[in-house]
UniProtKB/TrEMBL annotation:
One GO CC term, this protein: TRAPPII protein complex
Coarse class of the protein's main subcellular location: Golgi
Domain TRAPPC10 Ig-like: 768-920
Designated name of the protein: Trafficking protein particle complex subunit 10
Compositional bias ranges of the Low complexity kind: 639-649, 1186-1199
Provenance organism: Hucho hucho (huchen)
InterPro entries: Ig_TRAPPC10, TRAPPC10/Trs130, TRAPPC10/Trs130_C, TRAPPC10/Trs130_N
Domain TRAPPC10/Trs130 C-terminal span(s) in chain numbering: 1004-1230
Length: 1243
């Protein structure tokens, strides 16, 4: 469009509601200007029926002189010519004149209105002060108005209004004008609403008769369009647009019903052949020519659609919605083409293309006329569809008229062009002066080949630029493909190649298989014309394997390749390399050995199966392969780490070394027809804040995006039934994946196989490992360990030996029948050889048999780890950061003491020593205890088998290693000379009684020894091994005996629940302490009597008794044999039954070295309760919390003296020093009443 072209004028509806004026015309003429200006200034609220929302409208009126011809006749309800209000104007202020002429004129006026049924009228009396002054005999003003109201407005007094001095600018005049205009607007709106509602009812009635014979859509169209005109007259453009949309939908539904076989009779007029195709006309508000055709019933389908859309376009522009015009226009053009087919309308070939082309340009010109350039560029997404549609139709016309052929149009084409241009008719007056009107463009484009190419390229490039600007690249490439076809028709393949290549890349990336095939055929033709041999052969190879083509087409392209390959090359010619993806498909690989892991110097066989994708047999002259070398340091992982990187990583790796490549997968390179894509590998991705690790966002990421988004030559599936399987290669050689196949001068190359299929060649350092044959090595008995030597690249020669350092705690046992087994790298047994083992004081030498590289040497040795005699405490191992190393515990070594033995080994292949650590577990767990029965003492040793092995245990012996046996003796009770069987987790208890002559020693150093052997041992006598357990007993003599008695209340024979009973505790000294024991006990001497303090406490943990009063205290015991102290207290049984005695505890009470300010009263047997809890352990504080709260502390001076009071401490007696005579005793407690339900506590 040219910038200097004038914008078309936008016309509006000039119709306004008609108001007739009768009476004094000169008076009305003088007031007309003011009335026409002031009437639309104030808006009025328009309330409509049927619940429609009210609207604010500005009323205008067309004031005309009253004539009887203007009044509607019977049956004529046309709204545009209907007078909505009738006004009678008079300024009469003389009674005689009123009676003589004015009254009679008013009577005739009202009679005429009543005759035509018009009830909307108004009488306006204009009063003027100047006229009053000229008349001296006039009556007051009210007399004339009252008379008029009495004569004409008996029941409607508001139909007569007074307008005072309308031509003056006074407040009275303004008030009078305001009142008059309000009344006029109200009456006009009431009349308008009433008549409009009646018109709508009549229109609905007419629409409901559409199923009756003789109903005409054109007649109904004119009625509803008049309603649209009325809305447009009121500037309600949205409501007016709704009327046209309803007409559009009604007509479309009738056309669809006609296509389904349900046709209406009136549609016959629209089935007439199309004789004119001059396009849309949008530069007029109303196309009266087409409206008259519709009114007469002579309009064609294109006429009706053109007129209807032109009215919709005008209203949309009034509503400032120009971009909706383009959307509706595109739908209209496509629908019209379909409706013509449904109605089977006869159309000249090419006529529709002309109509669509002209209509597209007309809409674009109309939009450009009401929008500036910035708006057009910002909203090109709305107009690009019309540009594209116009381009397609112009291209179709060019092909039809012979303007694209290389030789130009023929005479037949010229005649067809003349007929098409004749159907356009003469150019419309609105576009005659426009140099770029659609009419002129079409005439010029069809006039010559050069003009057509100019206009077609201009439209195509404009549409492409718009598509690129809005990011619709697919649509842009589609237009480019159409341009490529145009250039190919014009014989210009160079300019077509770029567009075809761009489209092909897009189709391949998105997987449109049929489009890929079609575009490749065009590309092949273009490359052949340009003599691009290599590219043409590659495209031919892809097409030869494309299942979307017929077999004949595929054979043609395959023959093109074979023909070129069979031609003798010129000296300057080079071999053409093509992609193998289009020629052959890799189906299977098989490695031998299956693991695809070999050492240096070994042979690896690879069998390939390749499927030919060509439709004819192809002879392969040469096969070549290349390798990609990747150096990887395996470290100590060795073959174990290599096994995880085998070919099983391929698409379908199997354990037998076979890798299958499914048909159609990207791995197989089937770019000509692959439809299978690799599965999505989605992983969670979280973005956390670096400060507080809070989650900012989360999502998923695709790890194999490079596979899903990589370019494929095509994505259609390959039908195996249409392919001749002529090449199936099975080769065995030591080179890995396929790389090149040669057919004459053509080489098919596959750059790589993805994912990578690889084999591994490793070079391994010699390794020595020592592992036990059982789950756990047991100390104390011979255990077998397995030595495994992986020779790696080292060759074990004759004379090579392992040097093992000897330790006293773990000797190496060897026999003359020890042998070694030699295994190959695949685990096959190669041979066996005897070992020569020589031992000295410090070193054990093992001579190794000769072993080739990459073999395994295995042999077994017996070792014995001695059990330490004392309880073994393993060394605390610490990490490099100083933390203690914690060993992971398994189910086998729970409760077992482990012993780590380290062995230093010198290997012949290394100058450094290898340090091997073996962990042994002690199979037994021993513990001891001392038991007392009065003054008699017993020592009990418990030996528990904590291993899973069953043992025989014999000869248990307990001895004192330091004290002379003359002073005391140990007698084994319940001893047996036969071995005992000890199962797993089973314990054996041994008991010895201690007897002494004078006094027991303070300390006993005891040693327990026994012999044990596994039950599974073949020779039980030689298999027995010693076990020794040493321990120490301190202060084993009995110092005190403790006896308790519970006495029922006086008068009762038994204790009863809830009744206080007496508890008497007797503490008796059994012997005088020795010198050492005396030093440990703090004693005091008062009046020649030495005493020691004891702390007692009565606690009932089972909650059977309630101790009343004081439950603990400090007593002073004389340091003399048989000295007895009794303590009495009260207890209350809480349950009935045989209740056990409460627990009684005795501690040594050791006062602080400092002497208190006030000595406590030691003569009393019961002391202050608070002293008993001082310096107690945390375990006992919970039991005596209530006692602590009940006790009271003696006041000692001031508060400061009390805080510095020295604190005593408690010390428990050693096991066996206190003998509890009442332990295990029970007392019978009866219930208070004889209830039916008795609660009994049984322990």
């Amino acid at each position: 469009m040219e910038a200097h072209e004038e914008k078309p004028i936008i016309y509006t509806m000039e119709n306004k509601p008609i108001v007739t004026c009768a009476g004094d015309q000169s008076l009305f003429t003088s007031l007309y200007t003011s009335l026409a200006q002031q009437l639309p200034r104030e808006p009025m609220e328009w309330r409509r029926s049927y619940g429609r929302a009210p609207k604010m409208i500005h009323l205008e009126a067309n004031f005309v002189q009253f004539k009887e011809e203007l009044l509607p006749k019977d049956g004529n309800r046309a709204l545009l010519t209907f007078p909505f209000l009738h006004i009678y104007w008079t300024d009469c202020c003389d009674t005689e004149m009123y009676k003589a002429s004015v009254k009679d004129d008013m009577l005739r006026w009202q009679s005429t209105l009543r005759l035509h049924g018009s009830v909307d009228w108004l009488i306006v009396v204009v009063e003027s002060e100047a006229k009053k002054k000229n008349k001296t005999n006039i009556l007051p003003r009210t007399s004339i108005v009252d008379k008029i109201r009495n004569d004409f407005c008996n029941k409607q007094s508001d139909r007569c209004v007074v307008l005072s001095d309308p031509l003056k600018e006074s407040s009275r005049s303004q008030d009078s004008w305001s009142s008059f205009l309000t009344k006029l607007r109200t009456l006009l709106l009431m009349s308008f609403t009433k008549n409009l509602g009646r018109f709508e009812d009549d229109m609905r009635t007419l629409r409901e008769k559409r199923t009756e014979p003789g109903w005409s859509f054109c007649d109904y169209f004119m009625v509803q369009e008049e309603l649209a005109f009325v809305f447009e007259m009121l500037q309600q453009f949205e409501d007016a647009l709704v009327q046209y949309d309803e007409l559009d939908a009604l007509f479309t539904q009738y056309v669809l019903n006609f296509g389904a076989g349900d046709g209406a009779n009136w549609l016959g007029s629209f089935c007439a052949p199309v004789k004119r195709w001059n396009g849309l006309l949008l530069r007029r508000p109303i196309d009266m020519e087409k409206r008259e055709l519709i009114q007469r019933g002579e309009a064609s389908l294109l006429d009706l659609r053109s007129y209807l859309f032109s009215r919709q376009c005008t209203l949309l522009i009034f509503l400032q919605r120009p971009w909706e015009v383009t959307q509706r226009a595109l739908e209209l053009l496509h629908n019209c083409v379909q409706e013509l087919c449904l109605l089977e309308v006869s159309v000249v070939q090419g006529a529709l293309d002309c109509w669509v082309f002209l209509s597209c340009l007309e809409v674009l010109h109309r939009i450009e006329g009401c929008c500036d350039r910035a708006q057009l560029e910002a909203n090109c997404s709305h107009t690009v569809g019309l540009w594209t549609y116009a381009t397609e139709k112009l291209k179709s016309l060019g092909y039809l008229c012979g303007l694209v052929a290389e030789k130009g149009p023929t005479s037949e084409d010229l005649n067809r062009t003349v007929d098409l241009l004749a159907g356009l008719g003469e150019e419309r007056p609105e576009t005659v002066n426009s140099l770029q009107s659609p009419y002129k463009k079409l005439n010029e484009a069809l006039s010559s080949v050069e003009a057509f190419e100019k206009h077609y390229l201009e439209l195509s490039h404009a549409a492409m630029e718009m598509y690129r600007a809005i990011g619709r690249m697919r649509s842009a490439r589609l237009i480019g493909k159409s341009l490529a076809e145009f250039y190919m028709k014009k014989g210009d393949p160079e300019r077509a190649e770029g567009f075809l290549d761009d489209s092909l890349r897009s189709y391949v990336a998105e997987g449109w298989s049929l489009q890929v095939t079609h575009t490749r055929k065009q590309m092949a033709e273009c490359q052949k014309l340009l003599q691009q041999t290599e590219d043409y052969l590659q495209t031919s190879a892809l097409l030869a394997g494309d299942a979307n083509l017929t077999v004949e087409e595929r054979k043609h392209f395959c023959q093109e390749i074979l023909t070129f390959a069979s031609q003798p090359p010129a000296p300057s010619d080079q071999t053409v390399a093509l992609s193998m993806a289009a020629f052959a498909q890799l189906r299977q690989m098989q490695f031998s050995p299956p693991g695809a892991v070999v050492h240096v110097g070994a042979a690896l066989q690879l069998e390939l199966r390749v499927r030919c994708l060509m439709p004819v047999a192809v002879k392969v002259e040469q096969l070549a392969a290349t390798l990609h070398f990747s150096l990887e340091q395996g470290g100590a992982r060795g073959r174990a780490g290599s096994a995880q990187r085998r070919t099983g990583q391929g698409p379908q790796g199997q354990g037998d070394g076979v890798v299958l490549f499914p048909q159609g997968s990207p791995l197989a390179g089937a770019g000509m027809g692959a439809s299978l894509l690799p599965a999505l590998e989605l992983y969670e991705m979280q973005d956390r804040s670096p400060s507080d690790s809070s989650l900012n966002s989360t999502g998923v990421v695709c790890k194999n995006m490079h596979l899903l988004l990589r370019r494929h030559d095509s994505s259609a599936s390959l039908d195996t039934s249409s392919v001749t399987l002529s090449l199936l290669v099975a080769l065995s050689f030591s080179l890995p994946p396929l790389s090149t196949l040669s057919v004459g001068r053509v080489q098919f190359v596959q750059s790589h196989i993805y994912p990578v299929v690889q084999y591994e060649v490793y070079s391994q350092e010699p390794q020595l490992t020592i592992e036990p044959l059982s789950d756990n090595l047991l100390a104390g008995i011979p255990q077998k360990v397995k030595f495994t030597i992986a020779t790696g690249h080292y060759s074990v020669k004759k004379g090579d030996a392992l040097q093992l350092s000897n330790t006293d705690s773990m000797p190496i046992l060897h026999s003359s029948c020890c042998s070694a087994t030699i295994l190959s790298s695949t685990g096959e047994r190669v041979g066996e050889s005897a070992l020569s083992i020589q031992s000295s004081e410090k070193v054990t030498s093992i001579s190794l048999p000769p072993t080739p590289p990459y073999h395994t040497l295995e042999f077994q040795l017996e070792v014995l780890c001695h059990i330490p005699p004392t309880p073994f405490k393993p060394d605390i191992e610490r990490l490099t950061n100083g933390e203690v190393r914690h060993r992971p515990k398994s189910h086998a070594d729970r409760g077992m003491i482990n012993i780590d033995q380290k062995v230093s080994i010198d290997c012949p292949w290394s100058i450094y020593s290898t340090l091997i650590s073996l962990t042994f577990y002690v199979p037994f767990k021993a513990k001891h205890s001392i038991l007392s029965a009065g003054k008699r003492k017993y020592i009990q040793v418990c030996l528990q088998n904590v291993s899973d092995t069953i043992f025989h245990l014999a000869d248990p012996v307990l001895t004192d290693t330091h004290t002379s046996s003359l002073s005391h003796s140990l007698t084994h009770l319940f001893g047996s000379s036969l071995p005992q069987t000890v199962c797993s987790q089973q314990s054996v208890f041994c008991l010895w009684e201690m007897r002494w002559v004078e006094r027991l020693p303070l300390c006993l150093q005891c040693a327990f020894s026994a012999s044990f052997a596994p039950v599974s041992a073949s020779d039980a006598h030689t298999a027995f091994k010693p076990y020794r357990y040493e321990f120490q007993l301190d202060r084993v003599s009995t110092l005190y005996s403790l006896k308790a008695e519970i006495l029922p209340p006086s008068g009762d024979q038994h204790c009863r629940t809830g009744t206080l009973c007496g508890l008497e505790v007797s503490i008796t000294r059994q012997a005088e302490p020795s010198e050492t024991e005396g030093e440990e006990e703090e004693s005091t001497e008062i009046e020649g009597l030495r005493t020691t303090k004891l702390m007692y406490e009565v606690v009932d943990n089972s909650s059977n008794w309630a101790v009343c009063g004081k439950s603990s205290g400090v007593v002073s015991m004389p340091v003399a044999a048989s000295a007895t102290h009794r303590v009495q207290m009260e207890v209350m049984p809480l349950f009935a039954g045989h209740l056990p005695f409460p627990n009684i505890k005795v501690f040594k009470y050791l006062p602080h070295s400092a002497v208190p300010a006030i000595q406590p009263d030691t003569d009393s047997c019961l002391e202050n309760d608070t002293m008993s809890l001082l310096d107690k352990g945390l375990d006992d504080q919970g039991d005596t919390a209530s006692i602590r709260s009940r006790g009271s502390v003696h006041s000692v001076g001031s508060g400061e003296q009390q805080r510095v009071l020295p604190m005593p401490r408690l010390e428990p007696f050693s096991p066996g020093q206190v003998f509890y005579l009442s332990q295990g005793r029970q007392v019978l407690v009866l219930p208070v009443t004889d209830d039916h339900v008795m609660e009994v506590n049984v322990t």
